[in-house]
Design goal:
The chain is of the alpha+beta class and 577 residues long. It contains eleven helices and 31 strands. GO terms for molecular function: ATP binding; ATP-dependent protein folding chaperone.
Length: 577
Protein backbone atom coordinates (compact mmCIF):
# COMPACT_ATOMS: atom_id res chain seq x y z
CA UNK A 1 0.00 0.00 0.00
CA UNK A 2 1.34 3.44 -0.99
CA UNK A 3 0.67 6.80 0.63
CA UNK A 4 0.36 9.93 -1.48
CA UNK A 5 3.35 12.15 -0.91
CA UNK A 6 6.62 13.49 -2.23
CA UNK A 7 9.22 11.24 -3.88
CA UNK A 8 12.86 11.55 -2.80
CA UNK A 9 14.66 14.85 -3.50
CA UNK A 10 15.45 14.87 -7.19
CA UNK A 11 17.51 17.96 -7.92
CA UNK A 12 21.14 18.62 -7.08
CA UNK A 13 22.15 21.70 -9.11
CA UNK A 14 25.77 21.74 -7.93
CA UNK A 15 26.69 18.68 -10.04
CA UNK A 16 27.24 18.36 -13.80
CA UNK A 17 26.27 14.68 -13.71
CA UNK A 18 22.79 14.15 -15.10
CA UNK A 19 20.30 11.31 -14.76
CA UNK A 20 17.40 11.40 -17.21
CA UNK A 21 14.24 9.56 -16.16
CA UNK A 22 11.42 9.29 -18.70
CA UNK A 23 7.83 8.19 -18.07
CA UNK A 24 5.37 7.01 -20.67
CA UNK A 25 2.17 7.67 -18.70
CA UNK A 26 -0.25 5.59 -20.74
CA UNK A 27 -3.99 5.05 -20.65
CA UNK A 28 -3.68 1.29 -20.12
CA UNK A 29 0.05 0.69 -19.46
CA UNK A 30 2.90 2.89 -18.26
CA UNK A 31 6.67 2.50 -18.31
CA UNK A 32 9.89 4.15 -17.17
CA UNK A 33 13.29 4.34 -18.85
CA UNK A 34 16.45 6.13 -17.78
CA UNK A 35 19.99 6.95 -18.85
CA UNK A 36 23.04 8.69 -17.44
CA UNK A 37 23.63 11.57 -19.84
CA UNK A 38 27.23 12.21 -18.78
CA UNK A 39 28.50 8.82 -19.92
CA UNK A 40 30.58 8.63 -23.09
CA UNK A 41 27.98 6.50 -24.86
CA UNK A 42 24.73 6.79 -22.87
CA UNK A 43 22.46 3.75 -22.97
CA UNK A 44 18.72 3.92 -22.38
CA UNK A 45 17.55 1.27 -19.91
CA UNK A 46 13.95 0.30 -19.11
CA UNK A 47 12.70 -0.44 -15.61
CA UNK A 48 11.45 -4.05 -15.77
CA UNK A 49 10.99 -5.04 -12.10
CA UNK A 50 7.76 -3.84 -10.52
CA UNK A 51 6.00 -4.22 -7.17
CA UNK A 52 3.44 -7.01 -7.32
CA UNK A 53 4.75 -8.48 -10.57
CA UNK A 54 5.74 -11.72 -8.77
CA UNK A 55 9.13 -12.01 -10.42
CA UNK A 56 7.91 -11.35 -13.95
CA UNK A 57 9.81 -8.68 -15.85
CA UNK A 58 8.20 -6.27 -18.30
CA UNK A 59 8.95 -2.74 -19.56
CA UNK A 60 5.42 -1.63 -18.60
CA UNK A 61 2.82 -2.11 -15.90
CA UNK A 62 -0.95 -1.56 -15.96
CA UNK A 63 -2.01 2.04 -15.38
CA UNK A 64 -4.29 1.03 -12.53
CA UNK A 65 -4.83 2.64 -9.16
CA UNK A 66 -7.07 1.58 -6.31
CA UNK A 67 -8.13 3.46 -3.16
CA UNK A 68 -9.43 0.71 -0.85
CA UNK A 69 -10.65 3.00 1.94
CA UNK A 70 -13.41 5.39 0.79
CA UNK A 71 -12.66 7.56 3.79
CA UNK A 72 -8.92 7.89 3.12
CA UNK A 73 -7.82 8.97 -0.36
CA UNK A 74 -4.14 9.10 0.62
CA UNK A 75 -3.65 5.31 0.68
CA UNK A 76 -3.66 3.42 -2.61
CA UNK A 77 -2.21 0.48 -4.52
CA UNK A 78 -1.04 0.85 -8.09
CA UNK A 79 0.27 -0.92 -11.18
CA UNK A 80 0.95 -4.65 -10.89
CA UNK A 81 0.08 -4.54 -7.18
CA UNK A 82 -3.58 -4.02 -8.09
CA UNK A 83 -5.77 -7.05 -8.74
CA UNK A 84 -7.48 -6.72 -12.12
CA UNK A 85 -10.59 -8.24 -10.57
CA UNK A 86 -11.05 -5.29 -8.20
CA UNK A 87 -13.09 -2.21 -8.94
CA UNK A 88 -10.03 -0.25 -10.06
CA UNK A 89 -9.66 3.18 -11.58
CA UNK A 90 -8.87 2.66 -15.27
CA UNK A 91 -8.02 5.38 -17.76
CA UNK A 92 -7.35 8.26 -15.36
CA UNK A 93 -5.06 9.70 -18.04
CA UNK A 94 -8.06 10.32 -20.30
CA UNK A 95 -9.76 12.27 -17.50
CA UNK A 96 -7.08 14.94 -17.90
CA UNK A 97 -8.59 15.79 -21.29
CA UNK A 98 -12.34 15.07 -21.16
CA UNK A 99 -12.87 17.42 -24.12
CA UNK A 100 -11.57 14.81 -26.58
CA UNK A 101 -14.37 13.69 -28.89
CA UNK A 102 -15.51 10.08 -28.38
CA UNK A 103 -16.06 8.01 -31.56
CA UNK A 104 -19.73 7.40 -32.33
CA UNK A 105 -19.27 3.62 -32.45
CA UNK A 106 -18.43 3.48 -28.73
CA UNK A 107 -21.66 3.27 -26.76
CA UNK A 108 -20.39 4.05 -23.26
CA UNK A 109 -17.72 6.63 -22.61
CA UNK A 110 -14.90 5.47 -20.34
CA UNK A 111 -14.22 9.00 -19.12
CA UNK A 112 -17.65 9.67 -17.52
CA UNK A 113 -17.52 6.31 -15.72
CA UNK A 114 -13.98 6.91 -14.46
CA UNK A 115 -14.78 10.45 -13.28
CA UNK A 116 -17.56 9.02 -11.11
CA UNK A 117 -15.06 6.63 -9.47
CA UNK A 118 -12.42 9.19 -8.58
CA UNK A 119 -12.03 9.99 -4.87
CA UNK A 120 -10.48 13.36 -5.74
CA UNK A 121 -9.64 15.54 -8.73
CA UNK A 122 -8.18 13.79 -11.82
CA UNK A 123 -4.94 15.78 -11.53
CA UNK A 124 -4.47 14.57 -7.95
CA UNK A 125 -5.16 10.92 -8.83
CA UNK A 126 -2.71 11.18 -11.74
CA UNK A 127 -0.20 12.76 -9.35
CA UNK A 128 -0.52 9.78 -7.01
CA UNK A 129 0.25 7.32 -9.81
CA UNK A 130 3.05 9.42 -11.34
CA UNK A 131 4.67 9.98 -7.95
CA UNK A 132 4.50 6.27 -7.07
CA UNK A 133 5.99 5.03 -10.34
CA UNK A 134 8.78 7.64 -10.27
CA UNK A 135 9.60 6.87 -6.65
CA UNK A 136 9.89 3.18 -7.51
CA UNK A 137 12.09 3.99 -10.51
CA UNK A 138 14.48 5.98 -8.35
CA UNK A 139 14.79 3.07 -5.92
CA UNK A 140 15.50 0.66 -8.80
CA UNK A 141 18.16 2.93 -10.29
CA UNK A 142 19.85 3.27 -6.90
CA UNK A 143 20.39 -0.50 -6.96
CA UNK A 144 22.68 -0.33 -10.03
CA UNK A 145 24.94 2.67 -9.27
CA UNK A 146 27.00 3.70 -6.23
CA UNK A 147 25.10 5.78 -3.68
CA UNK A 148 27.62 8.63 -3.84
CA UNK A 149 27.26 8.97 -7.61
CA UNK A 150 23.47 8.72 -7.49
CA UNK A 151 23.26 11.44 -4.85
CA UNK A 152 25.24 13.99 -6.90
CA UNK A 153 23.34 13.40 -10.16
CA UNK A 154 20.92 16.05 -11.32
CA UNK A 155 17.62 14.27 -11.93
CA UNK A 156 15.85 15.47 -15.05
CA UNK A 157 12.36 14.11 -15.73
CA UNK A 158 10.62 13.70 -19.08
CA UNK A 159 6.91 12.93 -19.38
CA UNK A 160 5.19 11.94 -22.64
CA UNK A 161 1.73 13.18 -23.67
CA UNK A 162 -0.50 12.52 -26.71
CA UNK A 163 0.08 14.93 -29.58
CA UNK A 164 -3.70 15.31 -30.06
CA UNK A 165 -4.22 16.56 -26.52
CA UNK A 166 -5.40 20.07 -25.81
CA UNK A 167 -2.98 22.56 -24.30
CA UNK A 168 -5.13 22.50 -21.17
CA UNK A 169 -4.61 18.72 -20.84
CA UNK A 170 -0.86 19.07 -21.34
CA UNK A 171 -0.81 21.74 -18.66
CA UNK A 172 -2.83 19.45 -16.36
CA UNK A 173 -0.23 16.71 -16.88
CA UNK A 174 2.52 19.13 -15.94
CA UNK A 175 0.57 20.12 -12.83
CA UNK A 176 0.13 16.46 -11.87
CA UNK A 177 3.90 15.97 -12.08
CA UNK A 178 4.53 19.06 -9.96
CA UNK A 179 1.95 17.92 -7.40
CA UNK A 180 3.83 14.62 -7.24
CA UNK A 181 7.04 16.52 -6.48
CA UNK A 182 8.62 15.76 -9.86
CA UNK A 183 10.91 18.58 -11.02
CA UNK A 184 12.37 19.76 -13.26
CA UNK A 185 10.08 18.08 -15.80
CA UNK A 186 9.67 18.50 -19.54
CA UNK A 187 6.90 17.21 -21.78
CA UNK A 188 7.34 15.46 -25.12
CA UNK A 189 4.74 14.40 -27.67
CA UNK A 190 4.37 10.62 -27.75
CA UNK A 191 4.85 10.14 -31.53
CA UNK A 192 7.88 12.43 -31.40
CA UNK A 193 9.43 10.25 -28.72
CA UNK A 194 8.61 7.14 -30.76
CA UNK A 195 10.20 8.68 -33.87
CA UNK A 196 13.44 9.46 -32.04
CA UNK A 197 13.75 5.91 -30.74
CA UNK A 198 12.71 4.25 -34.00
CA UNK A 199 15.11 6.22 -36.15
CA UNK A 200 17.94 5.80 -33.68
CA UNK A 201 17.54 2.05 -33.29
CA UNK A 202 16.44 0.72 -36.67
CA UNK A 203 19.20 -0.85 -38.67
CA UNK A 204 18.40 0.34 -42.19
CA UNK A 205 19.62 3.00 -44.56
CA UNK A 206 18.18 6.52 -44.37
CA UNK A 207 18.85 9.41 -46.67
CA UNK A 208 18.33 13.12 -46.21
CA UNK A 209 14.92 14.03 -47.54
CA UNK A 210 13.33 10.67 -46.75
CA UNK A 211 9.95 10.87 -45.02
CA UNK A 212 8.02 8.47 -42.82
CA UNK A 213 4.88 8.28 -40.69
CA UNK A 214 4.84 7.34 -37.01
CA UNK A 215 1.50 5.92 -35.87
CA UNK A 216 1.37 5.63 -32.09
CA UNK A 217 -1.69 3.49 -31.37
CA UNK A 218 -2.12 3.08 -27.64
CA UNK A 219 -4.90 2.21 -25.24
CA UNK A 220 -6.79 5.51 -25.34
CA UNK A 221 -5.43 7.63 -28.17
CA UNK A 222 -3.99 7.19 -31.64
CA UNK A 223 -1.43 9.84 -32.68
CA UNK A 224 0.15 10.25 -36.10
CA UNK A 225 2.96 12.58 -37.14
CA UNK A 226 5.01 12.58 -40.35
CA UNK A 227 8.72 13.36 -40.32
CA UNK A 228 11.44 14.16 -42.81
CA UNK A 229 15.12 13.41 -42.29
CA UNK A 230 16.81 16.81 -42.45
CA UNK A 231 20.32 15.66 -41.48
CA UNK A 232 22.18 12.43 -40.75
CA UNK A 233 25.50 13.72 -39.45
CA UNK A 234 26.88 14.62 -37.03
CA UNK A 235 23.44 14.15 -35.39
CA UNK A 236 20.27 12.63 -36.79
CA UNK A 237 17.79 15.49 -37.19
CA UNK A 238 14.11 15.19 -38.00
CA UNK A 239 11.44 17.76 -38.77
CA UNK A 240 7.69 17.43 -39.04
CA UNK A 241 6.31 17.41 -42.56
CA UNK A 242 2.67 18.17 -41.74
CA UNK A 243 0.50 18.88 -38.68
CA UNK A 244 -0.10 15.81 -36.54
CA UNK A 245 -3.50 14.15 -36.42
CA UNK A 246 -5.19 11.62 -34.18
CA UNK A 247 -8.32 10.26 -32.56
CA UNK A 248 -9.68 8.40 -29.54
CA UNK A 249 -9.51 5.06 -31.39
CA UNK A 250 -7.19 3.29 -28.96
CA UNK A 251 -7.47 -0.37 -28.00
CA UNK A 252 -9.70 0.33 -24.99
CA UNK A 253 -12.38 0.81 -27.62
CA UNK A 254 -12.01 -2.88 -28.47
CA UNK A 255 -12.86 -3.74 -24.86
CA UNK A 256 -15.94 -1.53 -25.01
CA UNK A 257 -17.06 -3.07 -28.29
CA UNK A 258 -16.49 -6.55 -26.88
CA UNK A 259 -18.72 -5.63 -23.93
CA UNK A 260 -21.36 -4.43 -26.40
CA UNK A 261 -21.08 -7.73 -28.29
CA UNK A 262 -21.63 -9.68 -25.05
CA UNK A 263 -24.65 -7.49 -24.28
CA UNK A 264 -26.11 -8.22 -27.73
CA UNK A 265 -25.45 -11.95 -27.19
CA UNK A 266 -27.11 -12.40 -23.79
CA UNK A 267 -29.60 -9.53 -23.76
CA UNK A 268 -29.79 -6.32 -21.74
CA UNK A 269 -31.37 -7.84 -18.61
CA UNK A 270 -28.91 -10.74 -18.27
CA UNK A 271 -25.97 -8.47 -19.15
CA UNK A 272 -26.80 -6.13 -16.24
CA UNK A 273 -26.57 -9.13 -13.90
CA UNK A 274 -23.44 -10.54 -15.60
CA UNK A 275 -21.51 -7.27 -15.18
CA UNK A 276 -21.75 -7.60 -11.39
CA UNK A 277 -20.12 -11.04 -11.34
CA UNK A 278 -16.51 -12.13 -11.03
CA UNK A 279 -17.05 -14.27 -14.12
CA UNK A 280 -17.55 -11.12 -16.22
CA UNK A 281 -14.28 -9.65 -14.95
CA UNK A 282 -12.47 -12.90 -15.83
CA UNK A 283 -14.02 -12.92 -19.30
CA UNK A 284 -12.97 -9.31 -19.92
CA UNK A 285 -9.47 -10.15 -18.70
CA UNK A 286 -9.30 -13.09 -21.14
CA UNK A 287 -10.37 -10.87 -24.04
CA UNK A 288 -7.93 -8.11 -23.04
CA UNK A 289 -4.83 -10.23 -22.50
CA UNK A 290 -5.35 -13.11 -24.92
CA UNK A 291 -8.08 -12.95 -27.53
CA UNK A 292 -7.69 -9.47 -29.01
CA UNK A 293 -3.90 -9.80 -29.07
CA UNK A 294 -4.04 -13.16 -30.86
CA UNK A 295 -6.41 -12.10 -33.65
CA UNK A 296 -4.62 -11.95 -37.00
CA UNK A 297 -7.57 -11.60 -39.37
CA UNK A 298 -8.23 -15.31 -39.94
CA UNK A 299 -12.03 -15.58 -40.11
CA UNK A 300 -11.96 -19.38 -39.66
CA UNK A 301 -10.08 -19.19 -36.35
CA UNK A 302 -12.05 -19.73 -33.14
CA UNK A 303 -11.49 -18.10 -29.76
CA UNK A 304 -13.02 -19.07 -26.42
CA UNK A 305 -13.99 -16.61 -23.69
CA UNK A 306 -15.14 -18.08 -20.37
CA UNK A 307 -17.42 -16.41 -17.83
CA UNK A 308 -17.01 -18.85 -14.90
CA UNK A 309 -20.03 -19.42 -12.66
CA UNK A 310 -22.02 -16.73 -14.47
CA UNK A 311 -25.14 -18.94 -14.91
CA UNK A 312 -25.74 -17.71 -18.47
CA UNK A 313 -28.51 -19.27 -20.52
CA UNK A 314 -27.09 -21.41 -23.33
CA UNK A 315 -27.38 -20.11 -26.89
CA UNK A 316 -25.82 -22.80 -29.15
CA UNK A 317 -26.63 -20.82 -32.30
CA UNK A 318 -24.79 -17.80 -30.94
CA UNK A 319 -21.88 -19.95 -29.74
CA UNK A 320 -22.64 -19.62 -26.01
CA UNK A 321 -22.61 -22.84 -24.02
CA UNK A 322 -21.72 -23.61 -20.39
CA UNK A 323 -20.76 -19.96 -19.73
CA UNK A 324 -18.26 -20.09 -22.60
CA UNK A 325 -18.58 -18.00 -25.75
CA UNK A 326 -17.04 -19.53 -28.87
CA UNK A 327 -16.07 -16.45 -30.85
CA UNK A 328 -15.30 -16.65 -34.54
CA UNK A 329 -12.84 -14.59 -36.53
CA UNK A 330 -15.85 -12.76 -37.99
CA UNK A 331 -16.95 -11.72 -34.51
CA UNK A 332 -13.52 -10.21 -33.89
CA UNK A 333 -13.33 -8.58 -37.29
CA UNK A 334 -16.62 -6.82 -36.53
CA UNK A 335 -15.28 -5.64 -33.17
CA UNK A 336 -12.06 -4.33 -34.74
CA UNK A 337 -13.67 -2.84 -37.86
CA UNK A 338 -14.52 0.79 -36.91
CA UNK A 339 -11.30 1.37 -34.97
CA UNK A 340 -9.14 -0.06 -37.75
CA UNK A 341 -11.07 2.02 -40.29
CA UNK A 342 -10.40 5.20 -38.30
CA UNK A 343 -6.68 4.44 -38.10
CA UNK A 344 -6.53 3.57 -41.81
CA UNK A 345 -8.08 6.95 -42.62
CA UNK A 346 -5.56 8.73 -40.40
CA UNK A 347 -2.62 6.93 -42.05
CA UNK A 348 -3.95 7.67 -45.54
CA UNK A 349 -4.33 11.35 -44.64
CA UNK A 350 -0.73 11.60 -43.39
CA UNK A 351 0.63 9.92 -46.52
CA UNK A 352 -1.41 12.32 -48.64
CA UNK A 353 0.00 15.28 -46.75
CA UNK A 354 3.57 14.08 -47.24
CA UNK A 355 3.04 13.77 -50.99
CA UNK A 356 1.43 17.20 -51.14
CA UNK A 357 4.07 18.97 -49.03
CA UNK A 358 7.13 17.06 -50.29
CA UNK A 359 6.30 15.90 -53.84
CA UNK A 360 8.73 13.30 -55.11
CA UNK A 361 10.28 12.50 -51.72
CA UNK A 362 10.79 8.87 -50.76
CA UNK A 363 8.42 7.55 -48.08
CA UNK A 364 10.49 5.14 -46.04
CA UNK A 365 7.52 3.57 -44.29
CA UNK A 366 4.77 3.69 -41.74
CA UNK A 367 6.00 2.76 -38.26
CA UNK A 368 3.42 1.32 -35.87
CA UNK A 369 4.26 1.72 -32.18
CA UNK A 370 2.35 1.46 -28.93
CA UNK A 371 0.34 -1.45 -27.55
CA UNK A 372 -2.33 -1.42 -30.27
CA UNK A 373 0.36 -0.59 -32.82
CA UNK A 374 1.92 -4.02 -32.22
CA UNK A 375 -1.31 -5.77 -33.31
CA UNK A 376 -0.75 -8.00 -36.36
CA UNK A 377 -4.25 -7.53 -37.75
CA UNK A 378 -3.95 -3.74 -37.67
CA UNK A 379 -0.65 -3.95 -39.53
CA UNK A 380 -2.07 -6.26 -42.21
CA UNK A 381 -5.03 -3.91 -42.82
CA UNK A 382 -2.80 -0.86 -43.26
CA UNK A 383 -0.36 -2.76 -45.45
CA UNK A 384 -3.19 -4.00 -47.68
CA UNK A 385 -4.45 -0.45 -48.09
CA UNK A 386 -0.97 0.87 -48.99
CA UNK A 387 0.91 -1.91 -50.83
CA UNK A 388 3.48 0.58 -52.14
CA UNK A 389 4.57 1.69 -48.62
CA UNK A 390 6.27 -0.61 -46.13
CA UNK A 391 4.46 -0.93 -42.79
CA UNK A 392 6.87 -1.75 -39.97
CA UNK A 393 6.45 -2.75 -36.34
CA UNK A 394 9.75 -2.25 -34.46
CA UNK A 395 10.55 -5.20 -32.18
CA UNK A 396 10.27 -3.04 -29.05
CA UNK A 397 7.34 -0.95 -30.29
CA UNK A 398 5.68 -1.17 -26.88
CA UNK A 399 8.60 0.60 -25.19
CA UNK A 400 9.47 2.94 -28.08
CA UNK A 401 7.84 6.01 -26.52
CA UNK A 402 9.49 5.83 -23.12
CA UNK A 403 12.92 5.09 -24.61
CA UNK A 404 12.54 7.90 -27.14
CA UNK A 405 11.48 10.28 -24.37
CA UNK A 406 14.79 9.57 -22.61
CA UNK A 407 16.68 10.05 -25.89
CA UNK A 408 15.07 13.47 -26.35
CA UNK A 409 17.32 14.83 -23.60
CA UNK A 410 20.44 13.48 -25.35
CA UNK A 411 20.88 15.90 -28.29
CA UNK A 412 23.98 14.04 -29.45
CA UNK A 413 21.78 11.05 -30.31
CA UNK A 414 18.86 12.39 -32.35
CA UNK A 415 16.57 15.38 -32.17
CA UNK A 416 13.50 17.01 -33.66
CA UNK A 417 14.38 20.42 -35.06
CA UNK A 418 10.94 21.72 -36.02
CA UNK A 419 7.24 21.02 -35.71
CA UNK A 420 4.22 21.79 -37.84
CA UNK A 421 1.53 23.74 -36.02
CA UNK A 422 -1.78 21.89 -35.64
CA UNK A 423 -3.77 25.06 -34.85
CA UNK A 424 -3.95 28.78 -35.40
CA UNK A 425 -3.01 30.77 -32.27
CA UNK A 426 -3.71 34.44 -31.80
CA UNK A 427 -5.19 37.26 -29.76
CA UNK A 428 -7.78 40.00 -30.14
CA UNK A 429 -6.56 43.48 -30.97
CA UNK A 430 -8.61 46.67 -31.10
CA UNK A 431 -7.88 48.17 -34.51
CA UNK A 432 -9.33 51.32 -36.02
CA UNK A 433 -12.88 50.59 -37.15
CA UNK A 434 -13.29 49.90 -40.87
CA UNK A 435 -16.87 49.99 -42.17
CA UNK A 436 -16.10 47.28 -44.74
CA UNK A 437 -13.83 44.93 -42.78
CA UNK A 438 -15.75 45.29 -39.53
CA UNK A 439 -19.34 45.42 -40.78
CA UNK A 440 -21.65 44.06 -38.09
CA UNK A 441 -18.92 44.04 -35.41
CA UNK A 442 -19.52 46.11 -32.23
CA UNK A 443 -17.50 49.33 -32.03
CA UNK A 444 -15.39 50.41 -29.05
CA UNK A 445 -14.77 54.13 -28.52
CA UNK A 446 -11.16 55.08 -27.73
CA UNK A 447 -11.42 58.24 -25.64
CA UNK A 448 -7.68 58.93 -25.74
CA UNK A 449 -7.30 58.74 -29.53
CA UNK A 450 -10.76 59.99 -30.38
CA UNK A 451 -11.97 57.30 -32.81
CA UNK A 452 -13.78 53.97 -32.81
CA UNK A 453 -12.02 50.62 -32.73
CA UNK A 454 -13.15 47.10 -33.60
CA UNK A 455 -11.83 43.87 -32.11
CA UNK A 456 -10.05 41.77 -34.74
CA UNK A 457 -8.10 38.54 -34.50
CA UNK A 458 -4.35 38.69 -35.02
CA UNK A 459 -3.04 35.19 -35.75
CA UNK A 460 0.63 34.93 -34.83
CA UNK A 461 0.85 31.18 -35.47
CA UNK A 462 -1.04 29.48 -38.31
CA UNK A 463 -1.85 25.87 -39.10
CA UNK A 464 1.03 24.25 -40.94
CA UNK A 465 3.60 26.86 -39.89
CA UNK A 466 7.06 25.35 -39.61
CA UNK A 467 7.95 26.12 -36.00
CA UNK A 468 11.59 25.74 -35.04
CA UNK A 469 12.20 24.03 -31.71
CA UNK A 470 12.54 26.61 -28.91
CA UNK A 471 11.49 29.34 -31.34
CA UNK A 472 10.36 32.52 -29.58
CA UNK A 473 7.31 34.30 -31.00
CA UNK A 474 6.43 37.78 -29.73
CA UNK A 475 2.87 39.02 -29.33
CA UNK A 476 3.07 42.85 -29.03
CA UNK A 477 0.53 44.42 -26.64
CA UNK A 478 -0.22 47.89 -25.41
CA UNK A 479 -2.52 49.11 -22.67
CA UNK A 480 -3.60 52.63 -21.76
CA UNK A 481 -3.90 53.38 -18.05
CA UNK A 482 -4.56 56.52 -16.05
CA UNK A 483 -1.62 58.40 -14.56
CA UNK A 484 -3.12 58.01 -11.10
CA UNK A 485 -3.57 54.25 -11.32
CA UNK A 486 -3.65 51.54 -8.68
CA UNK A 487 -0.76 49.01 -8.79
CA UNK A 488 -3.24 46.23 -9.56
CA UNK A 489 -4.11 48.09 -12.77
CA UNK A 490 -0.79 46.76 -14.09
CA UNK A 491 -2.02 43.17 -13.90
CA UNK A 492 -3.35 42.58 -17.41
CA UNK A 493 -5.37 39.65 -18.68
CA UNK A 494 -5.14 38.58 -22.30
CA UNK A 495 -6.94 35.68 -23.90
CA UNK A 496 -5.02 33.35 -26.18
CA UNK A 497 -7.36 31.98 -28.85
CA UNK A 498 -7.09 28.93 -31.08
CA UNK A 499 -8.77 27.79 -34.27
CA UNK A 500 -8.54 24.45 -36.08
CA UNK A 501 -10.29 25.53 -39.31
CA UNK A 502 -8.17 25.69 -42.45
CA UNK A 503 -8.64 29.44 -42.77
CA UNK A 504 -8.64 31.47 -39.56
CA UNK A 505 -11.31 34.21 -39.44
CA UNK A 506 -10.74 37.92 -38.96
CA UNK A 507 -13.22 38.21 -36.10
CA UNK A 508 -13.99 36.08 -33.06
CA UNK A 509 -17.74 36.64 -32.99
CA UNK A 510 -19.84 33.81 -34.42
CA UNK A 511 -16.74 32.05 -35.71
CA UNK A 512 -15.08 28.66 -34.93
CA UNK A 513 -12.67 30.35 -32.52
CA UNK A 514 -12.13 29.00 -29.02
CA UNK A 515 -10.34 30.26 -25.94
CA UNK A 516 -7.10 28.39 -25.28
CA UNK A 517 -6.17 30.03 -21.99
CA UNK A 518 -6.09 33.33 -20.16
CA UNK A 519 -2.65 34.88 -19.82
CA UNK A 520 -2.15 37.01 -16.72
CA UNK A 521 0.69 39.51 -17.18
CA UNK A 522 2.04 41.23 -14.07
CA UNK A 523 3.93 44.47 -14.82
CA UNK A 524 3.84 45.92 -11.31
CA UNK A 525 7.62 45.70 -10.86
CA UNK A 526 8.39 47.82 -13.95
CA UNK A 527 9.60 51.35 -13.02
CA UNK A 528 6.96 53.92 -13.92
CA UNK A 529 9.54 56.21 -15.56
CA UNK A 530 9.78 53.62 -18.35
CA UNK A 531 6.15 54.19 -19.33
CA UNK A 532 5.24 56.68 -22.07
CA UNK A 533 3.11 59.54 -20.73
CA UNK A 534 0.71 61.04 -23.28
CA UNK A 535 -2.17 63.49 -23.39
CA UNK A 536 -5.28 62.28 -25.15
CA UNK A 537 -7.62 64.23 -27.39
CA UNK A 538 -9.85 64.49 -24.33
CA UNK A 539 -7.09 66.47 -22.60
CA UNK A 540 -6.44 63.78 -19.95
CA UNK A 541 -2.94 62.47 -19.19
CA UNK A 542 -2.42 58.70 -19.44
CA UNK A 543 0.32 56.11 -19.82
CA UNK A 544 0.80 53.99 -22.93
CA UNK A 545 2.22 50.69 -21.66
CA UNK A 546 3.83 48.67 -24.43
CA UNK A 547 5.06 45.13 -23.76
CA UNK A 548 5.64 41.85 -25.55
CA UNK A 549 4.13 38.54 -24.58
CA UNK A 550 6.70 35.92 -25.62
CA UNK A 551 5.77 32.33 -26.43
CA UNK A 552 8.53 29.75 -26.60
CA UNK A 553 7.48 26.60 -28.45
CA UNK A 554 8.65 23.32 -26.95
CA UNK A 555 7.88 19.76 -28.00
CA UNK A 556 4.50 19.55 -26.30
CA UNK A 557 3.99 22.76 -24.37
CA UNK A 558 4.09 26.51 -24.85
CA UNK A 559 6.08 28.50 -22.31
CA UNK A 560 5.13 32.13 -21.67
CA UNK A 561 7.25 35.08 -20.63
CA UNK A 562 7.06 38.86 -20.74
CA UNK A 563 9.41 41.48 -22.17
CA UNK A 564 9.32 45.23 -21.71
CA UNK A 565 11.46 47.34 -24.00
CA UNK A 566 13.21 44.16 -25.20
CA UNK A 567 14.17 43.01 -21.70
CA UNK A 568 12.65 40.26 -19.53
CA UNK A 569 10.32 41.84 -17.00
CA UNK A 570 7.37 40.77 -14.93
CA UNK A 571 5.66 37.41 -15.02
CA UNK A 572 3.08 35.60 -17.14
CA UNK A 573 0.81 32.87 -15.78
CA UNK A 574 -1.50 30.86 -18.07
CA UNK A 575 -4.90 29.89 -16.67
CA UNK A 576 -6.77 27.07 -18.37
CA UNK A 577 -10.46 26.35 -17.90
Amino acid sequence: MTHAGQPPPAYTPESNEKLIIALDFGTTYSGIAYCFASQRDPKVVSIVDWPGAEGQTAPKIPTLINYPDPNDNTKFSWGASVSKLQNNIVGVKLCLDPSQEKPEYLRDGLVPRTLQQLPKEPVDVAADFIGAIYKHALSEIQEVVPDDYFSICQKQFVLSVPAVWSDAAKNATMQAAKTAGIFPVTLIKEPEAAALHTMHSLDFSLKEGDAFVVCDAGGGTVDLVSYEVSALTPTLKLKEVAPGTGSMSGSLGLNERFADAVRDLVGEFEFDYLKKTKGYQLGMKSFELEVKRAFNGDLDEEYFVNFPMASLEDDPEGGLEANCWRMTGQHLKDIFAPLVHDIQCLVADQLKRIRQNRPGCKISGVFLVGGFGSNRYLKSCIQKQHPDVQVLQPSDAWAAIVKGAALSSLPQKAKIVSSSSTKHYGTLSNDRYDSVLDAGVPKVWDRHYGFSRAPRMTWYIKIGDDIQRDQRIKFPFYRSIDVNHHPDDLIFQSILYECVEKHAPLHEFGQPVHQNCTLVSDLRNIPRNLFNMKRGVDGELYYDVNFDLVITLKSALMEFSLEFDGKPFGTVSPKFT
